[in-house]
Amino acid sequence: MKPAAFTYHAPGSVNDAVAVLGDVAAEGGRVLAGGQSLVPTMAFRLATPAHLVDINGIAELDRLAVDGGQLAIGACVRHAAFHQPVTDGRLGPLLSHVARHIGHYPIRQRGTFCGSLAQADPASEWCLVAATLDATVVAESGRGRREIAAADFILGAMTTALDEDELLIEARLPVPPEGTALGFVEFSRRAGDFALAMALAAYRLEDGAMTDVRLGIGGAEDRPRRIPEAEEALAGQAPEAQAFAAAAEAAAAAIDPMEDAQTDAAYRRDLVRALSQRALEAAAP
Amino acid sequence: MTAKTDITLTVNGRDYAVTVEPRRTLADAIREDCGQTGTHLGCEHGVCGTCTVLLDGQPVRSCLLFAVQCQGKSIRTVESLADGDDLHPLQEAFVKHHALQCGYCTPGFLMLAAGILENDPDINDADLREALSSNLCRCTGYANIVKAVRAAADDMKSG
Amino acid sequence: MDKVLGKPVERLEDGPLIRGRGRYAGDINFPHQLHMRMVRSPHAHALIKSVDTGEALALPGVFAVWTSADIAELGPVDFRADRASEILKPYRQPVLAKGRVRYVGDPVAAVFAEDPYTAEDAAELVAVDYEELPAITRADQEPGEFDDGLGTEAALLTHTFGDVEAGFAAAHTVIELDLLTGRHSGVPMETRGAIGVYDAAADVLELHGAAKVPHRNRDTLIGMLDLAPGQVHVYESHVGGGFGIRGELYPEDVLVLVAAKRLGRPVKWIEDRMEHLMCANQGREQRHLARIAVDEDGRILAMDDEIFHDQGGYVRTHGSNVANRTMCMLTGLYDVSAFRAVAHFRLTNKTPCATYRAPGRFESTYVREQLIDAIAAELGIDRVAVRRRNLIPADAFPYRLAFDEPHVADLEFDSGDYELLMDKALEAFGWKELQDTLARRREAGEMVGLGIGLFLEEGGRGPSDGARISVDSQGGVEVVTGGASLGQGFETAMAQICADALGVDYKRIRVIHGQTDRIPYGIGAHATRATVLTGGAVHATALTLRAKALDMAAELLQSPADALNIDDGVIGKRDDPGGPTMTLGEVAKRMAPGSKVLGDRPPGLWAEDFFNPAETVFPYGVHLAQVRVDPGTGGITVERFMVAYDVGRAVNPAMVEGQLVGGCLQGLGGALYEEFAYDERGQPLAVTLADYLLPTLGEAPEIECLITEDAPSPLNPLGIKSAGEGGINGVGAAIAGAVNEAIGIPGAVTRLPITPQRLKAILRAAGK
Fold first, then answer.
1. Nearest CA to B91 among B78, B102, B101, B104?
2. ∠ Cα C253 C257 C262 (to 5°)
3. What are the pLDDT digits (tens) for C371-413?
4. What is the structure's pLDDT at B140?
5. For chain B, what percentages of helix, strand and coil (3-state, to nearest 5) are there?
6. Contact yes or no for C17 and B103 at CB 8 A
7. How far is CA A183 from the centre of its chain?
């Protein structure tokens, strides 16, 4: 399990990184950030990039700051950066809670938020957060810089809208308005494993009724996404068990479950039902 | 085979000038090029934690890093823990609490625990268990490892 | 000086291990060594049409590439057990596949290169042309063809006694269960490794990285390589866990020796984790169609089990041992008068199987205890009461199981008080009080339940092991054994036994193991033999040596030998503390060759002796579990687990507890998480540690231990019964019973591991 040979590049700036990537992308160049997903696939030789462009030495990608109502997360910000709340209000604690579910402590010292988005694993917690809270990602290449909405960015299992010569330099997560209730739960076989399913719920209360409702599901379909059928079932309702149950049922019915040898569609629907309900309960103030 | 690069790795405070292919993992470089074989390989895909070392004070899987990425960084391995004949409190506690059997995972657990306790000397039991669930042991059932790390944490604070 | 036998003293092994100064297979290097990399089959079953090594050989740094044609003279890896079984011989594994591959991972070619990275590059360049054949992936499907004219049912094995038909004819109730134990394995944290060196000057082949049974592997190797015993030396260094699967002789072990000799350079092979999960021995996978006949009070009249044993692609070194151990331990600690087991010993196109910690016993306990639970549920009798009625009573020992088959050895259970241990365990667990507590929780809507598994273990089977102990001129003691250390604390245990018998500090004792050039014979460490057998030999030898030392000292101290004592290595008069003394080192000096005081004595302060136990010892235990099921996800939380085990006598209680707790968590792995699943084409689905789910600390409950010494074995002077496998044996049984009670469906769990997916399907089908 030794990786295949590659040529190593360690640019010192985003400009240099984008230039190198532009040169080597077509001949199998890949970006190396935390490496906690890419390097294992290289060890199995499932990935054999001819070039690695290591962005870990680019200081400008370490930025983590609230800017204009958005949390800006640079490409080299590690999962561990979220262990302590990074914002006031409920977003910071939610991200801390979510981060605890990503791999294990040493993995979180290296793996990055943006790397998770670029990897687009169906069971990625950060992909669920990005999809549910309508994050934006910023991609840069020799052809310029563009912003992509999370829903348009994650296209399927391990598939994104990123072009091969593009570097994902930042993700921007809207800070939910004050008073937003947030709840996250996931179910995995063991501590730190990829989740078999997860749910993230968000809503605000106006006159006792739920508004701006979001229910995102991850790990169950080929990509995390919001489930409109469930959100509609919740909008305007009081945050009570009956409404949660109806939404959970709607979510379970609405998904197009992934199946594998161990996990059939019926089980994924069961999980989505249970976890949707629990995420909504966890969000309740 | 691709062109090899000359790099300097700083392992346990000593500089090692080594010549490696870019694909050489940090774990292999520590073991084969720097001769520090206390760091073991258990899976080479980042799951078992047997190869855990401290990189600039943080516990990391050395099988998921390339040696070329680690120039200018401080690398600490199990060989750094004892000071001559004086064992590190974690090592003493592992012996006292029978926290090892075959010993293969032990260096990884020691470095994981060292990193955790250096970063958070007051860590609570729940967080400690969560952090120690990072590494695999097949012999002990973990109970004595938790006991040993907790005892060492208390010892290190009072000491 | 205080006695150390029976005390939880610190281990002798720990010093180097906690400093990172261990010497595991990967740490062993020789100048100019080559690195071997295997080319393995990507197909579960296929014919090899051609192998092209040209491109691989052309890669710079590649020294040689071998296929089966290069080792045509070399036979398959031979059995060390079941040697007599001619019918199994055609199913042995060739060192490199010849013409046909039979599991994904089957070695087809070997690359020898200057470094492991290059070797792996070259292995990818070996072009093998296969013609894929249909794969057999289940032992209970129609048998197929192993080879031309050779079926996949290698043997039909039976174990019987008593009149089974009459038992079933007289039954008040007959219970039938269809149960499956999933495929899992030891998966030690260190993968396998083998380093072959040829010392041309001495004409000796050295195999480093050995474990478990070095002497027996040496014996197999000299047979396969047609060499004399003195021409093959096998060396065990540190071993990162064994659990039954590490240290058996595998194709790679043979190949590094052949290559080292022929290529003229040392050859090193370190298995990677993916190879380990595809190629190292697996175990446990058996389907049981089990029946039990009982009277109206739940007393057992007869047991019957038809077993489909999934052996995988080849029969490895153990022959059919696991199926046989399953059958002979099925009735366990119950008094059963009629019994029949039939095992279909079948080859499939999956990784070969062999012994994994508590082989055949984890499986049979799961089946037996599920049958007992089913009797209780069917007759409306308490689970504990049914067990109590059927246990072999304390006054029935020695208790003999005599099988009808002439080739099946009888079993004689040496000693026990099974009911006493059950009662002690139930009391310590608070079983009675828990009935109410859990009933209240169930009323409140929780799914919680208790489970119980009673089991018998076996260990210390003979025939014989020896030891040699010597004292040097400084009083240092060296104990040379043919035992093996896989991390279980072998050195410490042997030193403790020797220390008390001889009268020295255990920390002054060096224990040698696993070195075939140091002692001609050795039993190794397998089937829970080490402490009983090698411990018995060390004890006997230490006593012989003590007598020798006292005999010499008696003359030098002018005192009868029986008035002398040895304490902390100092010999003095027992009833004269201020009197003359001399150290063991001084005695050793005075016994040097040519010494004038030797008289007729042979020179040197050393002794050699053997221990030849007549029979096997049978420790026994009780596992108790409390679980909670999450009805929404099917997730199972083990809230409590207790291992109660009568070890006869504990040499080191801390190490015994370590064995039990560690074994128990492995058992929980097999009961709840770990499974080598395959798809219908025989492709393995768990070839990474992200897919083969070893329990982490996050899944580990606090495991409570109740270690008792109520029934010391009469078969050895120390009363030891061994501890290695009691932690794992009953876990599947106890967890299955607890889950059944938690969900309120008797007999619901029919398959291990109980994954959340499977449990949720059970709940869904039951409308829960």
1. B78
2. 145
3. 999 999 999 999 999 999 999 999 999 999 999 999 999 999 9
4. 98
5. 40, 20, 40
6. yes
7. 15
Closest chain C CA to residue A197: C633
pLDDT band at C181 (very low <50, low <70, confident <90, very high): very high
Strand C703-708 vs strand C636-646: parallel, antiparallel, or unpaired? parallel
Report which of C652, C643, C630 is spatially closest to residue C729, judged by C-alpha positions: C643
Greatest pairwise CA separation for chain C in angstroms? 90
Q: Min CA distance, A244 vs chain C (Å)? A: 14
Q: Is the peptide bond before C753 cis (omega within 30 degrees of 0)?
A: yes
pLDDT value at position C82? Answer: 58
Which amino acid does the sequence have at C265?
R
The single-letter DSSP state of residue C372 is H
Contact C703 B141 (CB under 8 A): yes
Answer yes or no: do A270 and C632 touch at CB < 8 A.
yes
Q: Which residues sit opposite C509 in a β-bridge?
A: C477
Query: Residue A219: left (phi > 0), alpha (psi -120 to 50), or beta?
Result: left
**Rounded CA separation A98/C207 (Å):** 50
Q: Looking at residue B32, what DSSP letter applies?
A: I
Distance separating alpha carbons of residues A197 and A271, to the nearest angstrom: 6
Residue B102 with chain C: CB contacts under 8 Å: 188-190, 238-242, 486-487
pLDDT at C526: 74
- Which residues in chain C touch residue A2, judged by CB atoms under 8 angstroms apart? 116-117, 120
Please state, as a whole number, how many other Cβ atoms lie within 10 Å of the Cβ of residue C297: 12
CB C298 within 8 Å of CB C389: yes
- Put simply, whether B74 touches A (Cβ < 8 Å) is no
3-state helix, strand, coil in chain C (%, to 5): 30, 25, 45
Predicted confidence at residue C577, as pLDDT, reads 85
Q: Which of C120, C633, C695 has the CB atom closest to A187's CB atom?
A: C633
Interface touch B116/A105, C-beta < 8 Å: yes
How many Å apart are CA B16 and CA B125, to the nearest integer? 38
pLDDT for residue A148: 98
Q: pTM of the full predicted structure?
A: 0.98
Beta bridge partners of C157: C343
- Find, among C164, C163, C139, the residue nearest to C151 by Cα: C139
User: Among positive and negative, which fits the CA dihedral B134, B137, B142, B148?
Assistant: negative
Report how far Cα B33 is from the mean position of its chain's Cα atoms: 17
Mutate to test the interface with C, among A36, A100, A190, A273 (most CBs of C within 10 A): A190
Contact status, residue C573 vs residue C579, Cβ threshold 8 Å: yes
- Report the pLDDT value the prediction gives residue C531, as an integer from 0 to 100: 83
- What does the buried/exposed string (b/e) look like for C689-708 if buried means 16 or more CB atoms within 10 Å of the residue's CB? bbbbbbbbbbbbbebbbbbb
- The alpha-carbon gap from B158 to the nearest alpha carbon of chain A, in Å, equals 26
Residues of B in contact with A39 (CB under 8 A): 46, 63-66
**DSSP letters spanning C426-442:** HHHHTHHHHHHHHHHHH
Q: Is C281 left (phi over 0), alpha (psi -120 to 50) or beta?
A: beta
Contacts of A32 in chain B (CB under 8 A): 69
Are the C-beta atoms of residues C95 and C254 closer than 8 Å to each other?
yes
Neighboring chain B residues of C242 at a CB cutoff of 8 Å: 102
pLDDT digits (tens, 9 = 90+) for B62-95: 999 999 999 999 999 999 999 999 999 999 999 9
Q: What is the pLDDT of residue C81?
A: 67
Query: Per residue in A232-248, pLDDT tens?
Result: 999 999 999 999 999 99
Residue C5 burial (C-beta neighbours within 10 Å; 0-12, 13-18, 19+): buried
Residue C767: CB atoms within 10 Å? 5
